[in-house]
Amino acid sequence: MSINPFKQLIGQPQAVKLLEQAIAKNRVAPAYLFTGPAGVGRSLGAKCFSEALLCVNIPPKQQLLVQKRIRERNHPDLLWVEPTYQYQGQLITVQEAKNLGITRQIPPQIRIEQIREVTRFLNRPPLEAPRILVIIEDAQTMTEAAANGLLKTLEEPGQATLILLVLRIDQLIQTLVSRCQKITFHSLSSEDLIKVFKEQGNEEVLQHLYIIDIAQGSPGEAIVAYQELDNIPKELYKKIKEIPSNPIEALELSKNIAKKLDIQTQLWLIKYMQYYFWIKFNNKKILEVLEKSHLYLLSHVQSQLVWECLLLEILSIHS
Prior knowledge:
A 5-stranded parallel beta sheet has the order 2-5-6-1-7, with helices on both faces. β3 and β4 (90-93) form a beta hairpin. It is globular, with a radius of gyration of 21 Å. It is built from 15 helices and 7 strands. α2 (42-54) packs antiparallel against α3, α10 packs across α13 and α12 packs antiparallel against α15. The chain is of the alpha/beta class. It has helices at 13-24, 42-54, 60-71, 94-99, 112-122, 144-155, 174-177, 190-200, 209-215, 219-231, 234-240, 247-260, 263-281, 284-298, 303-318, and strands spanning 31-35, 78-81, 84-87, 90-93, 132-136, 160-166, 181-184. The protein is 54% helix and 10% strand.
């Protein structure tokens, strides 16, 4: 009896139905766009879809081995592409940077070198499976050169299926979007959220209701929030929850945030501040300033400058 990999994907019945039908009817598209909020299952959905596709016509006893290789990302017909940093002439992933203890001040990107690797990967026939699979996480981080390079690849993908994971469709150039079949992932219900945490052994997250509120139906975001909060020094966290009393205090706090927190934690911190300050002050102007600062950080503006402008502006609004 074949194993159903989609059992792992909780709270996304419509996405599962569309992907299962594509396999059952042998109508798998050359390119898919998995879109939806962060942490609701797009990456897991891509893994489940990969397991289902690469296990087609394989005896059930061998499917477990194939699924294990996919989880470990060492299947010869699967290429998983993640945003990277440039470090000492090499491209490294976010996890590799963490393992090396490297703090970066700009967000990671999908780079043209990675798209060239995708092209080389697609220029050969499948080695074991009926098709080759390429999964690109956070496709919205592609540089302009990378996006244009991928566009050429999508014109003739050969015996391959590409899956792009993106938060919103409008974050990609329209010519890329038009070449992909869209699969939408949604925020989870409270019941499904609890089920995910229990199955993953992350029940401790349920003890922090404000984290659940910030996550807005995204189990992945709730777990990230739980981990990121632990990354922030307690004394710094205490100061962040209060609006600076004067410009000098605001500048000093900006310096400490930029120095002690990497860019991913800073991006999460702004999201937390949006929630926390809205509950505390119910002021739309503060939310607008925070959202603007979030975009500046994503655009690689120097982080200490972003925080200085942010905190001084909040001080001005609140005084």
